[in-house]
Design a protein that fits this description.
By secondary structure, the protein is mostly helical. It contains 11 helices and 6 strands. It has one domain: EF-hand (Recoverin, domain 1, Orthogonal Bundle), CATH 1.10.238.10.
Length: 243
Amino acid sequence: MICSLSSRSRFLVNVMGCKIGSSGLSPTIQLNRRLNTTQLASEFLLIGNSMDPELQRRYRQLFRFYDVQGDGSLSVEGDFQQVAEALAARWQHRNTPFPDMLGLLLGTYAHESERRDLNHDGVVDELEFVDSHAPVVQAFLGMRPQAEAFIARAAGAFFDCLDLDCDGVLEVGDLEAYAAAYRKPTEGIRANLARMLAAFALPPDRLPRQVFLTLVEQYWFDPSPDVPGRWLFTLDCPTDASC
């Protein structure tokens, strides 16, 4: 589908990618390419529009989470394809929330990899990964209502891909399956989830959709030192939750 956003919002569309329709992620990714995200990222660096150090730290952490092969680079073939296959395989013999979930996930990962590949060499290194988010952060700050609506649709659709029983709540097993798809340890996930949910005065092992969206937004865009979303991709929380 074609993104139906105002001209003022096209910046956000081009930076983040329009993959969302009224029913969630669109299997076909069609972008308005008037703006070149590689050029935008470079321009932000040249004018000294640096991101908050805490956000940069989180993006580096996220890069290492995504780096399935542990080789310091990201690609669809080397990292994300097996993740998409593992996540889609969980839905065997179940009604999926989206047609062709595997194709949807692969298409999304391919688009995001292309957006982050600033030098167009087919892989994304850690510096590219971090730098490619400069225009995304700027778009969020400049058009927050539109950005929040986009996050609700995009992250909400991804929530649906993980919510195997379609009850609007992610359980520990859903989050463990996500980490395992990236070949990451799962031992600290329960404790980490409990401490995030404690900040919302919620039970320790069930993550509601709206809280998930709040955590995603905090992780990506709020550098505050006390937001629970800063722990979203933390995997080494001790089982006593003292971390």
